[in-house]
Amino acid sequence: MKFEKLNLPLEGNRIEVEDGQLRVPADPIIPFIEGDGIGPDIWAAARRVLDAAVAKAYGPKRRVHWFEIYAGGKARDRYGEWLPHDTLEAVRHYMVAIKGPLTTPIGGGYRSLNVTLRQELNLYACIRPVRYFEGVPSPVKRPDLVDLIIFRENTEDVYAGIEWREGTEKCRKVIEFLNREMGCSIPADAAIGVKTMSARASKQLVRKAIRFAIERKKPSVTLVHKGNIMKYTEGAFKEWGYQVAKEEFPEYTLTEEEAGKLGDAAPKSKVIVKDRIADSTFQQILVRPSEYSVLATPNLNGDYLSDAAAAQVGGLGIAPGANVGDTTAVFEATHGTAPAYAGQDKVNPGSLILSGAMMFEYMGWLEAADLVVEGMQDAIKGRRVTYDLARQMEGAVTVKCSEFADAIIARIRDSN
Ligand code: NAD
């Protein structure tokens, strides 16, 4: 593989795919994008934690060879563009990558670098696990009952970017067509956005969510939709979801209705597939979080739901995420670049660190993933945390971003 301006690590091998399964060597090359704003601070911290976990779990037998690739401000300086071809090619080739947050450039033809990255690489599922870490301040009474994994469709819905500004020629044309040919009565001063949801994209998302639930022995998959109002898009999402369960995973799944009929005779090993209206889901995850596990959602519902759920367990500073396609996966901090804090070694690196743990899980390096998560849990319990958590935790000591990483590393090294 030839890159225009990238320096490949001298050692390491590529992760490959065989029969749809990842084959991870003991010395994988993993590309990383440091990111803008606080990106360099949190990446420096995360990288040390991730390396420490691998060293503890596997000694000299396994090691990640990090490979820097560029997007955002660093890419603009190096390549004169925000998201160079090299970067996309490197992620395609090496398949598993990790990134810090990126500034959304004003002008320059990008709606958002993140959206472009997801669309270019067909990373159709945004996966956000939301779980509680003991000691983290929370606005709810029982945050410990929250253990959700949100699978959000990432490529279509109102995010596809099909919209027209009010008063433009194109907008007028669309309105005229809809009013004349389709029997609509849209006011002339309306702006128009188009919501598209396809069977293919919806099914591939739900398929991934169900497969995950089966593999990880999760109790249920809930299809979250607004099908009572948007019948042919959101309502169809629900129908397609049930179809996937019924046609592709009949031996592993039961619908909630089927399980209800069976009562106590319903086999506990099967994943229950159910659906909920989006607005009701927001109150359900607040009042009865333990009844929900994997959630599969269209793009917009999932966007709102991910942040709302993360807020229940202490906010975005420690919420990890991943954008995943059939085989390619990019793990990322879910928050933005927090430019006011850039370069101050101050912010919470937890989101990127936990994204790294997700990445290890994805690679099958479960021991390293567990060490990262437990190390973070212990560090928080030790109450030496970054300012965002410290200001809400009684008796906590504020430490720097790098010191928080040190605390996690110390716990990883001391673990049995
Ligand atoms: P932001 O997430 O950068 O900041 C929101 C608030 O959260 C701020 O108060 C910030 O200080 C705080 N915060 C964020 N990360 C934190 C951390 N790790 N520890 C402690 N506090 C933290 O969101 P914004 O201000 O809306 O966006 C800033 C820039 O980031 C914009 O250019 C936006 O487009 C971009 N952005 C990128 C991503 C991404 O790359 N995935 C996501 C969201 C926003």
Comma- or semicolon-separated keywords:
416 residues, 14 helices, 17 strands, binds nicotinamide-adenine-dinucleotide
Tell me about this structure:
The protein starts with 15 loop residues before the first strand and ends with a helix. The chain has 416 residues and is an alpha/beta fold. 41% of the residues lie in helices and 17% in strands. The protein has an 11-stranded mixed β-sheet with strand order 4-3-5-15-14-6-7-13-10-12-11, with helices on both faces. It has a two-stranded antiparallel sheet with strand order 1-2. It has a two-stranded antiparallel ribbon with strand order 8-9. Helix 1 crosses helix 12 (366-381). The model has no long low-confidence stretch (mean pLDDT 94). The chain is built from 14 helices and 17 strands. The protein is globular. Bound molecules: nicotinamide-adenine-dinucleotide. Residues 101-104, 114, 317, 332, 335-338, 341, 347-348, 351, 388 line the site of nicotinamide-adenine-dinucleotide. The site of nicotinamide-adenine-dinucleotide has 16 residues, from loops.
Write a compact overview of the structure shown:
With 416 residues, the chain is α/β, with parallel strands linked by helices. The chain has helices at residues 39-58, 73-79, 85-94, 113-120, 169-181, 199-215, 234-248, 256-262, 278-287, 299-312, 350-363, 366-381, 387-390, 401-414; strands at residues 16-18, 21-23, 29-33, 65-69, 96-99, 125-131, 147-153, 163-164, 192-193, 220-225, 253-255, 271-277, 294-297, 320-324, 329-333, 384-385, 397-398. 41% of the residues lie in helices and 17% in strands.
